[in-house]
Amino acid sequence: MTNDQRPMLALVTGASSGIGLQYATQLARDYHTDLLLVSNQEEELQRVAADLAAQYGVRTIARYADLSKPDAAETLHAWCHEQGYVVDILINNAGVFFFNPYCETAMPRIELMLNLHMITVAKLCRLFGEDMLKRELTDEEARQRINGHPRKRGYILNMSSMSAWMAMPGIQTYNATKAFIYNFSKSLWYELYPKGVNITVMTPGAVDTGLFGLAPNLRRLAVRLTVSIPPEKLVKRALKKLFQGKKADMPGFINWLSTPLLKHTPDWLLRLAMRYVGKYQK
Questions:
Q1: DSSP secondary structure letters along 194-212
Q2: Given 3.40.50.720, 3.10.20.310, 1.10.3720.10, 3.30.70.100, which CATH number is that of 9-280?
Q3: Closest C-alpha to 234, from 209, 259, 265, 197
Q4: Domain-by-domain residue ranges, the chain?
Q5: How far is CA 37 from the centre of its chain?
Q6: pTM of the model
Q7: Partners of residue 207 on adjacent β-strands
Q8: Mind listing the pLDDT tens digit for each residue in 36-83?
């Protein structure tokens, strides 16, 4: 997309750091989209919005929000309508991770993960997806091409995980919510894609961020072994797949090869993993 064409507006959740920051950066730098950045880290969010606007000359809007609240999606959607913001691209990236035995996990933490990963994602897809389906492209917009593909009415990208196929003690809630995102997104693709809205779900293995709490030396080793992927590489691939209309994607040949084995992991190995994973976290 060239600079003289009308820029699209991308809503990125969890945009103040990590993978979300990469989505915001690459959308501004490589696709020249305006940005609606959402995060519960208010100071960091304001700084990121200012930096990206200065670096890439795009309009940036910072919106503080706690997306783990049950009504967060409705509140955000209503605010966008009040402000007259038309969201062309929705990146559902916000997420949390913790390793803990289920019956030792505080109920508010469980509710936070369930709401953030499932309820809010499903509601945002419902609300903004309806807006996208109703949208009619102008002649100018219909002539636009993104990565060589005709522009669509809208785009939605959801972040799942390779752990969606894992029955792993200690991260039982995380795995289950990522399985929901994966199946929900693929099912929704069949409804939206024929009507001009691309929806893609990404299922990466480990991503080289601080989310999982691994020590720096283990993070470097995982990247060298290609078990973990740098966030900038993941995001570049994810955006390419989104604009192509790909239903789902898993980066990394090793991850793709090992996924069928995850469904048949022996119990003794899972118990061993549970014993050792915790001690390698910070």
A1: GGTEEEEEE--SEESSSTT
A2: 3.40.50.720
A3: 209
A4: 9-280
A5: 13
A6: 0.87
A7: 229
A8: 999 999 999 999 999 999 999 999 999 999 999 999 999 999 999 999
